[in-house]
Design brief:
By secondary structure, the chain is mainly alpha-helical. The protein folds into two domains: about 1-110, Rna Polymerase Sigma Factor, Chain: A, CATH 1.10.1740.10; about 150-208, Arc Repressor Mutant, subunit A. It has helices spanning about 15-20, 20-30, 35-55, 60-80, 90-105, 130-150, 155-165, 170-175, 180-200. Helix 3 (about 35-55) crosses helix 5, helix 6 (about 130-150) packs across helix 9 and helix 7 crosses helix 9 (about 180-200). The longest helix has 22 residues, at about 35-55.
Length: about 210
Amino acid sequence: MNLNLVGGSMTNVTAVASQLSDNELIMGYRNGNYSDFETLLARHQSKVYGYIFSVVKDKDVADDIFQDTFFKVIYTINSGMYKDENKFIHWVMRIAHNLIVDHYRRINKMPMVANRADFDILETLRTPDDNAEKSMIRTQVRRDIRKLIKKLPEEQRRVVILRHYGKYDFKDIAAMTNVSINTALGRMRYAIINLRRLAKDSNVSIDL
């Protein structure tokens, strides 16, 4: 399970940060102290991942749902939509639960229909509309891209995640990863090159 969502080691959590409340860590993260999010993640990752895995019973699926959960957490906090109610972990667990439900909805098979005299097989056949089909395609593309991102070198993977999931600009990414803006841009460029190569080798169609 790869948990390097925002870079750095999960074990390098300062004693001071570990004493802060969830909301204090969120405020610190909003104010540019990005290591506070690592502390927050380290504090709750076992509980969240444990719950997801206990339901889906599949490591790859659990990994994907766990990452999607914290991508959504990052996006919500960055967009200013998160409300401090001292219930951070409950909110995160709801997000994880909803993503689990979405997962099972996507893989749900056609339901069994009880036999009856007036049963018409045509009643159960529905052709997906264009929007549903496009949604399924987008979901599969996102899955494929996540799998490819996991294969990137760590420094490139970190930039891709921060840029496309965290929605950070390259100035912030450079500061968070302790490199120059040109280096951050270069890592992104090489990441795209590598993703294209990986996609080609894996026969995956992505638009980069």
